[in-house]
Amino acid sequence: MSCFLVSGEVEEIIQQAKTKSYKNLYLNYQHLSELPSGLLQLDKAEKLYLKYNILKKLPSDIYRLESLVELYLHSNDLQELPEEIGFLPCLKSLNVSNNFLKAIPATIGHLKKLEYLHLANNQLSLLCETLGNLHSLRVLDVMNNNLTRLPWQLCYCHKLENLSFDNNRIDRIPRQLMNLEHLKELSGSNNRLESLPQDLDHLLSLESLLLDSNVNLCALPGTLLKIPYLSTLGINSCGQPADDKTKGADSFSYFHGTQFFGNSEQNVLPLVELSLRATHKLVQSRSLPTPSFPLPANIVAVQAKINYCRCHRRREANSDIQGTPLRRHVGLR
């Protein structure tokens, strides 16, 4: 009886939407296992929300929703998407996160107006190259999948601002992506990255680079320091063996063979200080003679501020709410 009541409620909502020409339709938490046929007659609907149902597939004639701008299918049981999903001419946002998708159809590249594509928490092992045809795309989220690579064709998504691929098995970032001049956030924590492209500084708009828990990432390119707007660098547990269980071991204990942090109670150091420490240790290890020329004024100024920064960070750490872990990132100042 409960299924009948739910079905009746849904049909009533659809009928009201037809009569009153609703543009937004909310059918979340309705236990739908398939889309009602009447829903596809709402050709004026612009936003359709269907999260937390039990949909296993979408009808092949979903293209009849020709005015659809946003399609929200988060948390269903979808195992595939029909090729016809690529024939929604007005679609700007597609969210199919938290499903069971193993692939997405190549026709998705036909969505010329698509700006937001959320594919997180699925079972994707490959992304189709046609994603590069999404020239309006601003956000791509493929976190928590089984991906081993990113398609280099993403470099054609010239408007891309946010690329998130955390918790996959990706070992490199295609160099072609360094041409994404509008990219503001690049997040690839907990992957298998071994290195970063040397021309990372071509990402002129980059503000946040999150690479935590890439245990094979043991060095950063010096060009990182040239990115003008970079304010957050997450490299917690990079270069640290996954089987290391040393109590209280710092995140950077193994990073490029250099102990960057004093102890686990200190807050994170500015990147420029890390660079100075690494350079000092490198000079010592190679027994190079002390330079006879004076250090540049800006380096001297930075060294003079180091003690102040340490004290300032301790005050910040002490003022943090007790029991709330600080997100460890490097702040570029």
UniProtKB/TrEMBL annotation:
It comes from the Eukaryota. The keyword Transcription does not apply. Keywords: Leucine-rich repeat, Repeat. Residues 108-212 form the Disease resistance R13L4/SHOC-2-like LRR domain. GO terms for cellular component: cytoplasm. InterPro entries: Leu-rich_rpt, Leu-rich_rpt_typical-subtyp, LRR_dom_sf, LRR_domain-containing, LRR_R13L4/SHOC2-like. Pfam families: LRR_14. SUPFAM superfamilies: L domain-like. PANTHER family: LEUCINE-RICH REPEAT-CONTAINING PROTEIN 28 (PTHR48051:SF12), PTHR48051. This is Leucine-rich repeat-containing protein 28-like. It comes from Actinia tenebrosa (Australian red waratah sea anemone).
